[in-house]
């Protein structure tokens, strides 16, 4: 239980740091934190769903090693999230 709690806390803290760095440095957002933060959290949720679904499809439906799905997520998600953050979130 302690490991799961530590992992969840680390995820939340990294999301906060990630948001602030993207907001102020990566994209120099012009809109307020209210809308931007809500959209950022939505992108985080989409990333978790995308990762879980990819692993499920590759491992269970396609009967491939889970590592294949993991590699696909690691390669594709940064591109997808950059597009979403730059075009829709940090405007």
Please tell me about this protein's structure.
The model has no long low-confidence stretch (mean pLDDT 91). The protein has one domain (2-89). Helix content is 86%, strand content 0%. With 91 residues, the protein is mainly α.
The total tally of domains equals 1
The helix/strand order is HHH
Question: What's the count of strands?
Answer: 0
Q: How much helix is in the residues? A: over 70%
Biggest sheet features: none
Unreliable stretches (pLDDT < 50, length at least 5) are none
User: Ends: how far apart?
Assistant: 39 Å
- Secondary structural class: mainly alpha
Which of globular, elongated, flat, extended, rod-shaped describes the shape?
globular
Summarize model confidence as the mean pLDDT.
91
Beta-strand content bin: under 5%
Number of helices: 3
Please give the radius of gyration in angstroms. Answer: 15 Å
Task: Describe the protein's topology.
Layout: H1 2-26, H2 33-61, H3 66-89
Helix pairs in contact: 2-3
């Amino acid at each position: 239980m302690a490991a799961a709690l530590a992992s969840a806390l680390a995820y939340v803290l990294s999301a906060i740091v990630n948001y602030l760095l993207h907001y102020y440095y990566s994209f120099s957002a012009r809109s307020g934190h209210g809308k931007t933060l809500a959209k950022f959290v939505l992108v985080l949720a989409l990333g978790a769903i995308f990762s879980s679904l990819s692993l499920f499809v590759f491992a269970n439906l396609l009967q491939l090693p889970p590592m294949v799905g993991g590699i696909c997520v690691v390669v594709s998600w940064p591109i997808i999230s950059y597009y979403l953050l730059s075009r829709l979130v940090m405007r």
